[in-house]
Design brief:
59% of the residues lie in helices and 5% in strands. By secondary structure, the protein is mainly alpha-helical.
């Protein structure tokens, strides 16, 4: 599920957070999936419990997971809401560039530049 690159300049908690967030975005971890316990994931990855706990806290702060007490930590529906918000923003952008007479190629170049 996750691997930690000890030689990476990216801190381990960020590697865990980023990997889980990406797996949620690409639906490898669908809404409702129960994540491993902090202790279990830390043991699996060979890292400190606090490192995994920090990654989970940051995912929860971003609304990507929800902790249900002793039941565990689950992928929340916020991931779907993020995609919905992005789709709405994309539709609004498309309407705006059409109204301005900007063609598809140029509009996509503008988006690509903004994402850099």
């Amino acid at each position: 599920m996750i691997s930690i690159d000890a030689d990476s300049p990216v801190p381990p908690f960020e590697q865990v957070r980023t990997t889980l967030a990406q797996q949620m975005a690409d639906r490898t971890l669908p809404v409702g999936t129960r994540l491993p316990t902090v202790r279990a994931l830390a043991a699996e990855l060979g890292i400190a419990v606090n490192t995994v706990a920090r990654a989970y806290r940051e995912l929860e702060a971003a609304g990507l997971v929800e902790t249900r007490g002793r039941a565990g930590t689950f992928v929340s529906a916020a991931g779907d809401q993020r995609l919905s918000l992005a789709q709405t923003a994309a539709s609004t952008y498309a309407e705006t560039v059409r109204a301005l007479g900007i063609g598809r190629t140029e509009a996509l170049e503008i988006v690509a530049a903004a994402l850099r």
